[in-house]
Write a structure and sequence with these properties.
In chain A, 38% of the residues lie in helices and 14% in strands. Chain A is of the alpha/beta class and 270 residues long. In chain A, helix 1 runs parallel beside helix 9. Chain A is globular. Chain A starts with 17 loop residues before the first strand and ends with a helix.
């Protein structure tokens, strides 16, 4: 089988560094991406964004198009959500990331976001991979729920093969027999991806564990294993969140975690 | 969590029966869908289709858009493949099924095919599910590689909720720790789907096993467990197939299997 | 890695046939092993055994030593259970099978049983495998919850390497991400084991599905895939069973299933 | 289902601390257990032990009874191996740990070892759990390859229920679909076990990853997630090791890792 080439460390030895307006991903830094699972409310986003900026968050996240298992669940605000996210990010001086689910939404998502996210369920949506590969925006590529490390790197290869070299890999937990945690954070895959590829690799401890009390240990584990950053769900009122409330940190919990993670990263990376 | 409703046996007691020009799916019959993994060659398809018709195949399959793990693998013939498939089916008197991967291809796929397939990797591509839900063509919905039975039924619910009631569920093997077989045919899920839903459920023993010698036992197992049909890969020269050769039956092997399956089905269903 | 040898079809082409007093396993027959999960009550066993004999059951099963996940669950009657099982089997003219969990119980289990079962959790208890390999009783070797096909055959190899050639392999479902069924019946592994080895292979649809309504379809699937027999849990009052009630058939349900399975087997094997 | 009780944090709030002659496990320390997979050679062990002691190893490990997938692989030196391990540990001032596989070996293993290990394949060997529960030696209980967190804690409950409160839990990777790594280190389970139980929890990055280059990142991840220690395979000549060479660190690699881990632990635990 022809395997990955452009994403390989054999092709490029040095870490790929992706430069955003106010921060960079890869090459020794530890980027913190945070925000609510879904953009639900303009006031909430406008209040939350500067709070996050102050505690050291580098990128604001929020979903406008929400892929949901059931057709009867909240599906996101769509373009209105994109506008709110963009407005909140601009006001706080934070670049933003949001998920693209349909190639036909590429123009509009492109306009409002700084990083385009490809979600787990679309990791092998090769059409979408090719489309974002033809843009000049960084892409955050989440590992599929049951994708092997090789399949994950090959999905990134689709993007690089189209010309876009700015891919951030994200390990977000795989599906296993264990049901206590929502997914199983695959620390070995994170370390392997760092070893095999020059692309930055971050972790999503929120989806990987699905439990608020496990987000901090999972986040620290990822950084200790060499992750280039974290993407974390935060919500001021988790019980009212329309999705993923049980795994969202409170802003004050996130502030503590960021301090611990920064201390840990400086210990690890020296 | 709101769960499935329209796909449930509680909503509709009797088996849904999907009528095609020359055959029907559900309600006691055992539909045989067969063809090569990918449409590669016009001559091959035109020769193969009447052969399949004569041995009792009900629907011709063939991929025009091939989702491949690597960007460097054969990606299918695209529209030309659709034309060839359509021509071969028409000539042999067989309805055809092919996979839709990109919502922007819906019109063209719609024009050339009798059943629209949603592949495993797109089982939770909710955009695609909604789009095919707004058509009047039957949809063959493959279970995702690591989708639970509930997620599979909820994916079908997306289609029914848009108005299209003609969904054929397809169990095609799940990803487990076992590597000897390509996937693990989940017979319990097939039986459970029949129990929980009124929709027809078929099995794909080719992808489920990935090994020619296991296709026949897996096919018989599925029918014995109550499957409404089978989708099987067949190729006159498996070694030359551009994809999935190792799991493709020879036409003469398929002819034997169809006889055995028909005998088995009449034993099971009486 | 040195792999299996004595269990391979390359070493021995013809099916191994294991002869018991009143029946045989392998070589074309379809053995039916049935009984309650645990031996709980003498009266119940003495009443149930002749009922089972009359409906075509070939071997009586029942656990005396019950491996339970929790130390606070019912742990089996021990030697008293063995005596009851033996008495019930003798009275009804049925050979019996029960599980050995501790090498120190080998003498006593040997005395009371016709087939020694090695359970899933002990599939790689190599001490136990060697011990039963030195006896002259047939061994029913259940596949481990997460054992590959190769590991399963290597576990059998441990027994054959000690001199005991009478091993019956039993596929009883593997652990996967799916939670609707208790385990996932691996039909491909069953067919592969038949292909790779000369040893008889049976299936346990009760543990594989964990749901009464799925036992019959799973049982038929196994026979259609070539299984040499079935081991099924039956209990006259499933709700009162001390273990596994939800997957136990009623005797009358088992009687219907046996008829269907026998008809199916004669269709499949001719 | 009756679940765990004695192992729960609800039963006992404070961390259990297990005291050995020269070190302790639990309560804030980070114990380092290291040694070769199997005891193969007296000279090697006598040379290696003081080297390990000098670099900060707290406990010496080595297998005398080796559970191997194939009956034709090296099976360990048995009692001779126990003697060598014991001699090497005594000479270097290191307590030792070795695996017990057969209840009939308990007396001899008890005599030579300071900690009794129950391996993954025996996590639900309830006989063995009860036996070690009746001793006064600390028990290192490895999580089964496909055991849920609850099953793991219930296995520990078997030991505590017999009176032995000195159990060290060990997360050593679970079996998933991923094949690049030998197993999948389950960091979420490690953190969950710390949260749910007062028992110390350590990690085995060697078996969890199966690859030398991933041992260090996995080890650090475990400590960052709150692990009370590590058990690591080390071998002066990995290519000549009779088992697990590809995952064994060189002594000099271990020395570096221990320094990094100690720095990390002091950062994490302050």
């Amino acid at each position: 089988m022809p395997s990955y080439h452009l994403v390989s460390r054999k092709y490029r030895k040095e870490d790929t560094v992706i430069r955003l307006a106010t921060t960079e991903v890869g090459g020794g830094s530890t980027v913190i991406i945070a925000g609510p699972c879904a953009v639900e409310d303009r006031e909430l986003m406008l209040q939350l964004a500067p709070l996050l900026k102050n505690m050291g968050v580098d990128v604001l996240r929020g979903g406008a198009f929400k892929p949901r298992t059931s057709p009867y669940s909240f599906q996101g605000l769509g373009e209105e959500g994109l506008q709110i996210l963009n407005e909140a990010g601009r006001a706080a001086g934070l670049p933003v990331v949001t998920e693209l689910m349909d190639a036909r939404d590429l123009d509009i998502v492109y306009r409002y976001t700084d990083i385009i996210q490809i979600g787990s369920r679309n990791m092998q949506n090769f059409t979408l991979l090719r489309e974002v590969g033809q843009t000049d925006k960084p892409v955050l590529l989440k590992r599929g729920l049951s994708a092997t490390i090789e399949e994950w790197l090959l999905a990134a290869e689709y993007i690089l093969a189209e010309g876009n070299q700015q891919v951030i890999l994200c390990e977000r937990g795989i599906r296993t027999f264990e049901t206590y945690t929502r997914n199983t954070l695959d620390i070995g895959a994170l370390a392997a991806a760092k070893h095999l590829s020059h692309l930055p690799v971050i972790a999503d401890p929120s989806h990987a564990t699905g439990r608020r009390e496990l987000v901090a240990p999972a986040a620290k584990a990822a950084v200790a294993a060499g992750a280039d950053g974290l993407i974390i769900e935060v919500h001021p009122k988790p019980k009212e969140a329309k999705s993923d409330g049980s795994q969202s940190l409170l802003p004050e919990e996130l502030a503590v975690l960021i301090k611990e993670v920064k201390a840990l990263a400086s210990n690890i990376k020296k």
